[in-house]
Amino acid sequence: MVVRTIHVTRHAFRASYTLNSVTGEYHTNSPSPTGIPSDPPLASYGVQQSRELAEALTRLDPGIDHVYSSPFYRCLQTVQPAIERLGSGVKARLDNGIGEWYGAAHFDHPSPAPPVVLSSLFPSCIDETYEPSIIPPRSGETIEQLHDRVAQALTHIIARADAESPSSDVSILLCTHAATLIAISRTLTGDMPSDPNEDDFLAPTAGLTKFIRKQTSTEGQEKGPPLEWKGGKGVAGGWTCVLNGNCNHLAGGAERSW
Length: 258
Known about the structure:
Elements: E1 3-10, E2 18-20, E3 25-27, H1 44-58, E4 66-69, H2 73-86, E5 92-94, H3 115-121, H4 143-164, E6 170-176, H5 178-189, E7 208-213, E8 239-246
Parallel strand pairs: 1-6, 4-5, 4-6
Antiparallel strand pairs: 1-7, 2-3, 7-8
Helix pairs in contact: 1-2, 4-5
């Protein structure tokens, strides 16, 4: 059996930060527990969104078997209420491959806090045995490089989850960021617009986008580098999007759909 369903969410409404594009310095008025200016916590409104998201996730049928999260604080803060309610040993697997996208720059962007720090901030919520699929370059990426990075990460994540669940279908949750969520949606479906700025997939804070796998068997699927996902092919046999940025579970509706 295989991963049959993937749910993707963007972190809930966060505190703001700014970047000086000349000096490469980040600044925030809401200090992060990690001490990284580009890694702010959720705003109080976002905390409420995370609780509403958790309520929606615990009602899913089939339920969530694995949670994969960007290693930035706001993403872990978003999924923490759900992890605490899901139980059954479900913990967040930190994967930089679905982490934040920083544009290519002449300076180095900040890295997320190391797992040991995050584990101290989110006790019992993190799978400390999990190894991330890929580490993005600190100098940033082009849009094309973002999509290829995400395709590589998804190939790794799905293949591992497939191998871990030989006797049952699996449902997983990915918690990520706006641009990365859009790239995830495109690489799963294989639908890459000629203009990458096209509004095709929505990325509201704490919304839910859902994908169903086209193939029911992993036999014959590519095991190497995910170089050919465009043209409707998609990674790991391709996926159909059945929910696009749904926010029916949020009292305030869609926010920052980007």
